[in-house]
Amino acid sequence: MPELPEVESLARFLAEHLAGRTVERVYPLAVSALKTYDPPPDALAGRTFTGATRHGKFLDLDADGLHLVIHLARAGWLRWKEGLPELPPKPGKGPLALRVRLAGPDGAGFDVTEAGTRKRLAVYLVHDPSQVPGIQRLGPDPLSPEFTPAVLAALLSGERRQIKGVLRDQTVIAGIGNAYSDEILHAARMSPFRPAANLSEEEAGLLHATVVRTLVDAVERARGLPLKDLKAEKKSGLQVHGRTGETCPVCGDTVREVSFSDWSTQYCPTCQTGGRILADRRLSRLLK
């Protein structure tokens, strides 16, 4: 799933490549992905892109005041094309969900795709990004100056949930998903099942510094890379997430996993849980 660093990289790339380019035509191919109908997608035609930014994991492309907002969900991606085919794409053919063709002789544009059968990709066309329900509910952005240690401590205070779930909650902190929450907690040497409210002021400060450093480092590693290489770069930079059974690069222990219904968390017992290995959620309460 693309998270804050990948969406930030997409926004930076598109801000550079879309600036001043005019939309020739929009092809909405997956009806399930389109979450708004007024204005319709073809209202983008003839408008010029003036900016690209990010709200948490939402990508926001500004075209003369109309905002094309995209949430890539678990299996979505955006692919830049220097030369799109002349023939219109056919709906229902492959993973293509949306195509935006730019005016000009080069035929440039981009495709939004979604792999797999579970379709969660979301595309909105709105006059104001705050009209998107998911953006309305976002917590503070961890890369903004407003995200201070005191702000994080206040967010954690009174939280009965485990810290892993709190970090993944977009209404608490915007942009962190399953992968980077694992990475942050590993770097901070914290159990993913630690109750958030139990963190001391010092531990909350450490967690804040680790959140910011982990995300900034990921964004910097991706700087200047072609979009096609961003996914591979993300995977190569992960220490524990997606590395069940491999060796922890910090201590040499074996990376372990706890699986849930539709997601999993990876952790290092030596670095994070005092050497204890958890088989499932029933044992997670033992970690305080």
Tell me what the structure shows.
By secondary structure, the chain is of the alpha+beta class. Helix content is about 30%, strand content about 20%. The strands form 3 sheets. Strands 1-6-7-5 form a 4-stranded antiparallel beta sheet, with no helix packed on it. The chain has a 4-stranded antiparallel beta sheet with strand order 2-3-4-8, covered by helices on one side. Strands 9-10 form a two-stranded antiparallel ribbon. Strand 3 and strand 4 (about 65-70) form a beta hairpin. About 40% of the residues are buried. Residues about 280-288 have low confidence and may be disordered. Keywords: DNA damage, DNA repair, DNA-binding, Glycosidase, Hydrolase, Lyase, Metal-binding, Multifunctional enzyme, Zinc, Zinc-finger. It comes from Streptacidiphilus cavernicola.
CATH topology of the largest domain: Helicase, Ruva Protein, domain 3
- Please give the radius of gyration in angstroms: 20 Å
Distance between the termini: 29 Å
Helix content: 25-40%
Dominant shape? elongated
- Strand line-up across the major sheet: 1-6-7-5
Strand composition percent = 15-25%
Total strand count, please?
10
Q: SS-based structural class?
A: alpha+beta
CATH structural architecture of the largest domain:
Orthogonal Bundle
Can you count the helices? 9
The helix-strand sequence is HEEEEEEEEHHHHHHEEHH
Low-confidence stretches at least 5 residues in length (pLDDT < 50)? 282-288
Total domain units? 2
Q: Averaged pLDDT, please?
A: 93
What is the CATH first-level class name of the largest domain?
Answer: Mainly Alpha
How is the main sheet built?
Answer: 4 strands, antiparallel
